[in-house]
Design a protein that fits this description.
Order of helices and strands: EEEHEEEEHEHEEEHHHHHEHHEH
CATH class of the largest domain: Alpha Beta
Number of domains: 2
Number of strands: 13
CATH topology of the largest domain: Nucleotidyltransferase, domain 5
Amino acid sequence: MKHYLGIDLGGTNIAVGVTDEKGGITEKYSAKTNAVQPFEGLVRDIAETAKKAVENAGLQLSNIAAVGLGTPSCINPRTNLLVNANNLNWQNVPLYDELKKYFDMPVFIQNDAACAALGEAVCGAAAEYDNAVMVTLGTGVGSGIIMNKRIFNGCDDMGAEIGHTKLVYNGLRCTCGQKGCFEADASATALINQARNAAENDPKSIMNELCGGDMSKMNAKIPFDAAKAGDASAKAVVEKYIDYLAAGLSSAIALFRPQAVIIGGGVSAEGDYLIKPLKKKLFDCTFSAEQIDIPEIVAARLGNDAGIIGAAMLCRA
């Protein structure tokens, strides 16, 4: 049996899993991400964390067939440099070359959101489908497109950035520097900002109570909780947010016609309270939905393991 290493590199944690050929995790180990240190030091930390996971699995690095790494941003195929990972303070760094100093086996690097999508497609919410689109609703909107159980990133491996498709012409400023991106209105960060504005404009809103009157404690769960409790302002926030989400996803569906759309990130924990109205809105606003219906809309199942599994599955021939 072959063993693979799947590494999910985030701004907070380095999570490593030893997996089998089907994506089953046999051992996991994680460490805090020290993004303040020089690039080379963080890569060394990745290698040490991976080594610990392998040792805990009762193996040696020589037993590992290949290593897959999911990371913010992506590798520029023209320069072989990682383009831009803001939360790690990395720009145009030789990530592949540095990793190869520690791993004497094939190394594969891919965008972290795409890895999560692959993980869900192999072992999770879309395991029964060959083609799926996933969006991860967090600080931004991460995304991955799966075609025939493989990641699709366009001709130059820089694609699948659904979060940076345009939703509102000349709209809100996005973290990428552009205006009107899907991410600017449909990320969890956007939802939090929308909830803050609504709570400030309605002192009687339950949202104020749930965050203790401190807008810095507002989170993406509060507007949903307040809406479930009957708060009119929170209901309006949630409905508008799902409008934005449906509008952006309808474009992805029209372009790729996946069998399933997977919703990941913390917001997906709202389950049917999010998914049911999203399905209805998508049916109403998606091209030819009355004739050909819309794909299955499902919440992600694997949680933090999705990125590990997807990164490991990059290693499959």
